[in-house]
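Morning. Coffee machine broken again, so started the prediction first thing and wrote up yesterday's gels while waiting. Chain of 215 residues, entered below exactly as on the submission form.
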Amino acid sequence: MKTAHLVFPDISISTERLVLRPFDEADIQACTEMMNDELVTSWTTVPHPYTEADAREWVTRLAPAERTEGRGIVFAVTEFLTQRLVGIVHLQHTDWRVRATEMAYVVAPWARGEGYASEAAVAVAQWLFRDQGFERLELRTAADNTAAQQVAQKIGCISEGVLRGAWIARSRTEDGGWSDVRTDLIVWSLLPEDFDGVTEQLADASGYTAFSEWN
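Came back before lunch.
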């Protein structure tokens, strides 16, 4: 079997509060604002400053290519009621033979504190395991990125170890610029058996219902 031609379906996933869908050109402005946030700059590799041209390249070419070229899939995370962009969930480095992939997520500054990252991550993991037949989901979080680590723990991930000096984060300098800082990565994994009961626990804790619908 030639795994190079395997791709994820072009779908949207619905939860109680969110719709995870492909990016479209109407997201360019909100994407630009989200990616210029200080925390996003600190913990990701996005260009800084992040321009509207960068967002357009991401929305129209780079994000769709992740799926069509078989590397993964990118979801724009939007609020169900307002349709505003509140984040990104990105599956990347997909190994179709092993049925494993790596998840990354970003939450917009205007949407933090609502539990959206956990809700979106669980919805994608649920779809990945139950509908796509995957057997492993991996996350990598910078050692000082406690928010990302809390999401990994909340959705049931198991910490597997530390990759020493494996990431370059960015830190504010005294003059208001940015400098590169080498840091460790914590590796987390989620297997289908770890996932049992996580949806119900999250729903009870956060006050939203289980999310099992996708189309």
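Residues 204-215 have pLDDT under 50 and may be disordered. Going to sketch it on the whiteboard this afternoon.
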